[in-house]
Amino acid sequence: MQRRALLQLLAAAPLGLGLGTGPVLADGYPDKALKIVVPFGPGGATDLVARVLAERLHAQLGQSVVVDNRPGASTMIGANAVARAPADGYTLLVSGSSTYTVVPALRNDVPYDPLKDFDLLAVVADAPMVLVVRPDSPYATLQDLLTAAAADKAGLQYATFGPGSAPHLLGEMFALTANIKLSAVPYRGSAQAVMGVMGGEIGMAFDTLSSSLPHIQAGKLRALAVFSAERVPQLPDVPTVAESGLADATFSGWYAVALPAGTPAPVRARLSDALRTALASEKVRSTLDQGALLPVFLDEAAFRQRTEAEITRFRDVAQRAQIEVE
C-alpha cells in the first residue's frame, strides 16, 4: 500500500511541478530591464504613448523600461521583431491600430499574423480622426464638401500617408458611405500631408487629431468633422460624421500594447495590471490629453474582439473600393 502511494506521488510530481511554473514566473517577474518596440521614429503620437507608459511601468515594476524605435515598411519591421522575440514578457510592442488591423487587412505581404503571433494585451488610447481643409476653403461645412463632391465626377482629391494607410482607408470608407467619388493622393507622412493642405497643394486631408490639432488651434486648418462615435473634448464644436447621417463612416484609430504569442499568463496579468494602474494616473491621462488622445483601457478579450472586427470590416472596404497595396 505504501509502495502504491509512493508511485502515485511520483506520477503526480511532474504535473504538480508544471502547475507551479506560472506562479514562480509571476513572483520573479520582472528581474531585468524591459524593452518597448515602437515601429515609428522618435516623436509623434506612438512614441509619446510608449514613453509615458515606459515611465509609469518603470515605477510599477521596479525595472528600467527602454523604448526602441524601429520604423519602416508600414510598421512591419518593428512589429515583426516583437512577434519573433522570446515570449518572456521582456519585449513589448506599442503601436497604433494600423499595425494590428489596417495593414493586415490591406496588404498580402505582412510577415506576422496579429491574431496568432501576438498576445494582444491592452488598448490604451483612442486616436480620433478628423477631416481638415484650409481656413479659406470654399467648404465651410461637411455638407458643403459633400455637395461639391457629388458634382465632381473626377473625384475630389485628398491627402493620405500613402497607399493602404489609415487615412487612405478612411477616405474610401467615407466615399462609399456618402456615395461620392474621392481620389487619394499619397504623401510621405502626416506632417507632409497636412503641409500639403495648408500650402494649397491639395484641398483636404483625413488626419489624426493629434497631428492636426495644433494647426486647427492656430487657425491654419479648419476641421469639418470628426470620425469618432462622439464629439471629442478638444473640438467640442466640430460635429461627428454620424451627425450628418454617415454613421457607417465612423472610424477611430487607437494605440495598444502587445507581446509575443505564448507569453505566460501570470506575466501577462502582471503587465495588464501595471498598464491599468498607469492609465489611471493623472500624469498619463494629462500627457495623452495634451497629445489629443483619449485614455482608455480595453483588456485582452476586448482588444482581440476589436481587432477581429476591424480586420473583417477593413477587408470588406478594401474589396469594395478596390484598394490594392503591393
UniProtKB/TrEMBL annotation:
Signal sequence segment: 1-26
InterPro entries listed in its UniProt record:
BUG, Bug_dom1
Q: What is this protein called?
A: Tripartite tricarboxylate transporter substrate binding protein
Could you tell me the keywords of this UniProt record? Signal
User: Organism source for this protein?
Assistant: Corticibacter populi
Family affiliation: Belongs to the UPF0065 (bug) family.
Pfam families membership: TctC
